[in-house]
Specification:
Pfam families: YceI. This protein is about 5% helix and about 55% strand. The protein is mainly β. The chain starts with 9 loop residues before the first strand and ends in a 7-residue tail after the last strand.
Length: about 180
């Protein structure tokens, strides 16, 4: 399979100022809490074909934020991410399928030292040259995981029934990458 139109071979660098890795999870059975990670690094390596291409990401768990300091401290603690023992989460693609704008990125997600296969439903948003001459590519992706599959089992029972934190976590990614510099002769 061919790589998406406009992507040139080489390793595209992650642009954190134009990207976001976030998630949402059901809270108390009635609403969703959203959060994001502020310290993310990723690389998009484009080969001669889709099969020869890959994407990898490292997320620093201590960079978690949800807009509530008490919740953030709890989520960074041993009940959830345990950032002292597990300072990073990682994703490494294993295969890709699709064409045009729609892709499935298969890969291994590691959280708390537990690695599980996941599928990212991805949309290739195209390639553009910015006003400063840098060539950029954009990708939107999402997946849902069971937090229990990754050892994130803490919960509290609610008086009316149910639990405080849902099991299903929806992960959303908006990623921008910058093309590798072209060597001049």
């Amino acid at each position: 399979m061919t790589v998406p139109s406009g992507l040139t071979s080489g390793t595209w660098s992650f642009d954190p100022s134009h990207s976001e890795v976030g998630f949402s999870v059901r809270h108390a059975g009635i609403s969703k809490v959203r959060g994001s990670f502020q310290d993310v690094d990723a690389a998009l390596t484009v080969g001669s074909s889709l099969e020869d291409s890959s994407i990898s990401a490292t997320i620093r768990t201590a960079s978690f934020t949800s807009g509530d300091e008490n919740r953030d401290a709890h989520v960074r603690g041993a009940d959830f991410f345990d950032v002292e023992q597990f300072p990073e989460m990682t994703f490494v693609s294993t295969s890709h399928e699709g064409s045009g704008e729609t892709y499935r990125i298969n890969g291994d997600l590691t959280i708390r030292g537990i690695t599980k296969p996941v599928v990212l439903e991805a949309e290739f948003n195209g390639v553009a040259v910015d006003p400063f001459g840098a060539t950029r590519a954009g990708v939107s992706a999402s997946t849902s995981i069971s937090r229990k599959d990754f050892g994130l089992t803490w919960n509290a029972a609610l008086e009316a029934g149910g639990v405080l934190v849902g099991d299903k976590v929806t992960i959303t990614i908006e990623a921008a990458f910058v093309a590798p510099a072209v060597a001049t002769v």
